[in-house]
């Protein structure tokens, strides 16, 4: 099936590139144009099209749509939650991961299920093929190979906020695309032999909304040693400078500069894996997608990863080559949580750093050395690698390099990811200062949703940080901005016991279908069926109630207190660590055995239900206390409560009059609001008690004085 789709895609791409010119494209107006075919762009284009918008995806190379530019993996702690949420909203990357995964594991298993991190190593070719085949089968979506030179900007709609309005894009003048170059990837039909055509860049393409997902290509520069060249990815054309000029000069947006990098790719046969520690995958792969019960890669077909470490020799090579490495000397901020080996050595001297040797695919002869991103000259990269015992004979297929690129300060965006000053312009991915496939995909989906809704004259939608990790991500970006590439962690979500990877479908799929419009009927029906089944199972568990003594008799050796005389139902009992749903179902098969398929979800729900109910009550308190007055003289900087320094500075600077006003401040978190609410209520009660005691003492004193003068006291 996949091969048939790809064959059709090759035919469609050739027909489109060979038979259409820029003037043909201007004869119609698209609802949405998406610029860039990476993780953000593909999700944005697919989401807008699912919503019903006529969508055009423009990418510099059709063959690189869905390419994994850096590490061949998906998910992880915090990131896996994003993948599952994107999937719950009918996005692509979760199902692509299930199709392309070759090594599946759940990170953080030693901790609670709320912070588990679903992760997979991917086959690069399988992932790319899946994304391309999915885009092909998406109605109302057209793909064009080209480069965008500038945005078309006009006067704004006076009835909406903003200083400008985007009306489309203008293509850059590309070198002619010969069929031979394209034919390396898409075979040319015989009747097209000798034909050379290109998309004419002299004509605009009109649209109601534009989504920019330029990744590292916005004024991108590549670095290797002391060599610098324009570009956003090795082997690809540089981006047009006109687009960056439009953003900065025409629209007046604040733009910053960030950097990232990628490690060299190592020939697998040149590595002595016997000197590295084998890391096996999970015996049973866990799919990312709620639509899948199993992955394409069978358990026995999975590939292992290997763990090794840096040595003092690695540090020596880094220090000796600093003067030959212009990328590491630049001021642009790099990713704190995925730094280059040069940054790690210089920041943490004398330490032993982990290096993961990861497969790039089932048939690939390369290994990806996670943790060895580097930008020194190629000959020194080889020397550094060979300082690691397992890599002492390593050969490099492609060297590592660094990238610097422009990003737009994301505080200039609304929660719908639209630029505040420019109607119809949406940004997603690394252009907003983030790093990682998962963060890009999440933004891309939501930007595509809102670009489509705007084009179809529907109101924009927002996700709060109490509803999803996507909401946390967007709220952090638009409310706080970035000073370094942003990465998602579970610690960023205050309500992570509710925002779990297991319940993303229940949280988001119904809303995605009923309110947003980006979820298909098939997925919606499945989510509703699961929701109803879980609800029935929970009611069945609650219907089984016994005393502690009777439970011990039924289940045997479980750690129930001997002194507990209260009655416990099945859901209460499932909260205990050594009690499983299977145990309860075997004791009461007549009412529980039909719910075996939900056993893990029921266990997780039981464990976290008390925490979620508490958080729900706290959020209800916030809503009910919105009118609570905040003291005007409150010293937020030294307040004896758990508030981050950033939140303290926001409160001290703005000094909101009420709790409701505080909740609406950019950068404020629900956790901070709860701590503030508790403090004000607690100190307010204490002050009232103090005032009451003072008034009582005063009255007693007055009574004494009156009695002493023999004046009757009215009772």
From TrEMBL:
Comp. bias intervals (Basic and acidic residues): 693-703
Record's keyword annotation contains Nucleus: no
Domain tRNA uridine 5-carboxymethylaminomethyl modification enzyme C-terminal subdomain, chain residue ranges per copy: 606-678
Names of the cofactor(s): FAD
Keywords: FAD, Flavoprotein
Pfam families documented for this protein: GIDA (PF01134), GIDA_C_1st (PF21680), SAM_GIDA_C (PF13932)
Region (Disordered): 685-715
GO cellular component entries: cytosol; mitochondrion
One of the record's GO molecular function terms: flavin adenine dinucleotide binding
Example of a GO biological process term: mitochondrial tRNA wobble uridine modification
Family: Belongs to the MnmG family.
Name under which the protein is recorded: tRNA uridine 5-carboxymethylaminomethyl modification enzyme C-terminal subdomain domain-containing protein
Species this protein is from: Oncorhynchus tshawytscha (Chinook salmon)
Lineage: Eukaryota, Metazoa, Chordata, Craniata, Vertebrata
């Amino acid at each position: 099936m996949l091969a048939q789709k790809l064959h059709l895609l090759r035919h469609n791409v050739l027909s489109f590139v060979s038979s259409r010119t820029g003037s043909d494209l201007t004869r119609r107006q698209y609802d949405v144009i998406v610029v860039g075919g990476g993780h953000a762009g593909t999700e944005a284009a697919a989401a807008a099209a699912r919503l019903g918008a006529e969508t055009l995806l423009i990418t510099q190379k059709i063959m690189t749509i869905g390419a994994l530019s850096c590490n061949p993996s998906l998910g992880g702690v915090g990131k896996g939650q994003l993948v599952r949420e994107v999937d719950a909203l009918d996005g692509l990357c979760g199902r692509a991961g299930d199709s392309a995964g070759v090594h599946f594991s759940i990170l953080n298993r030693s901790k609670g299920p709320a912070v588990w991190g679903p992760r997979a190593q991917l086959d690069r070719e399988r992932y790319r093929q899946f994304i391309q085949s999915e885009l092909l089968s998406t109605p109302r979506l057209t793909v064009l190979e080209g480069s965008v030179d500038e945005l078309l900007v006009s006067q704004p709609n006076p009835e909406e906020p903003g200083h400008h309005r985007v009306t489309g894009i203008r293509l850059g003048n590309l070198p002619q695309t010969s069929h031979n170059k394209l034919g390396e990837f898409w075979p040319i039909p015989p009747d097209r032999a000798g034909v050379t055509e290109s998309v004419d860049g002299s004509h605009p393409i009109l649209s109601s909304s534009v989504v920019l997902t330029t990744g590292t290509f916005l004024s991108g520069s590549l670095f290797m040693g002391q060599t610098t060249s324009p570009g956003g990815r090795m082997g690809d054309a540089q981006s047009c400078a006109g687009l960056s000029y439009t953003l900065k000069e025409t629209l007046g947006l604040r733009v910053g500069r960030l950097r990232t990098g990628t490690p060299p790719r190592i020939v697998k046969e040149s590595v002595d894996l016997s000197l590295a520690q084998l890391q096996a995958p999970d015996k049973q792969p866990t799919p990312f997608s709620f639509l899948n019960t199993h992955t394409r890669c069978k358990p026995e077909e999975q590939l292992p990863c290997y763990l090794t470490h840096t040595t003092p020799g690695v540090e020596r090579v880094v220090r000796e080559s600093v003067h030959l490495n212009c990328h590491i000397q630049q001021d642009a901020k790099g990713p704190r949580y995925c730094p280059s080996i040069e940054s790690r050595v210089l920041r943490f001297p004398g330490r032993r750093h982990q290096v993961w040797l990861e497969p790039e695919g089932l048939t690939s002869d390369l290994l990806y050395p996670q943790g060895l991103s580097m930008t020194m000259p190629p000959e020194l990269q080889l020397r550094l690698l060979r300082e690691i015992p397992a890599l002492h004979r390593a050969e490099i297929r492609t060297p590592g390099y660094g990238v610097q690129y422009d990003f737009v300060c994301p505080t200039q965006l609304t929660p719908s990811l639209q630029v505040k000053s420019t109607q119809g312009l949406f940004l997603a991915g690394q252009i907003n200062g983030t790093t990682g496939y998962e963060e890009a995909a999440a933004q891309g989906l939501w930007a595509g949703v809102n670009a489509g809704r705007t084009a179809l004259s529907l109101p924009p939608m927002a996700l709060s940080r109490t509803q999803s990790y996507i909401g946390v991500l967007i709220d952090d970006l638009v409310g706080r901005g970035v000073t370094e590439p942003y990465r998602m962690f579970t610690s960023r979500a205050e309500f992570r016991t509710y925002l779990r990877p297991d319940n993303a479908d229940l949280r988001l799929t119904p809303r995605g279908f009923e309110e947003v419009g980006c979820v298909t009927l098939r997925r919606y029906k499945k989510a509703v069926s699961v929701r109803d089944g879980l609800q029935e199972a929970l009611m069945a568990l609650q219907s089984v109630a016994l005393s502690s003594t009777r439970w011990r008799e039924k289940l045997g050796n479980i750690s129930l207190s001997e002194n507990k005389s209260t009655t416990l139902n099945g859901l209460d009992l499932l909260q205990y660590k050594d009690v499983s749903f299977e145990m309860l179902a075997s004791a009461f098969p007549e009412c529980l055995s039909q719910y075996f398929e939900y056993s893990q979800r029921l266990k997780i729900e039981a464990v976290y239900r008390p925490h979620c109910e508490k958080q729900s009550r706290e959020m209800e308190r916030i809503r009910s206390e919105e009118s609570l007055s905040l003291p005007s003289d409150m010293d937020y900087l030294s307040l004896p409560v758990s508030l981050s320094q950033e939140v303290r500075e926001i409160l001290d600077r703005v000094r909101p009059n009420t709790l409701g006003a505080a909740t609406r401040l950019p950068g404020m978190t629900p956790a901070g609001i709860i701590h503030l609410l508790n403090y004000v209520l607690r100190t307010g009660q204490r002050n009232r008690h103090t005032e009451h005691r003072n008034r009582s003492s005063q009255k007693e004193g007055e009574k004494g004085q009156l009695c002493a003068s023999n004046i009757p006291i009215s009772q």
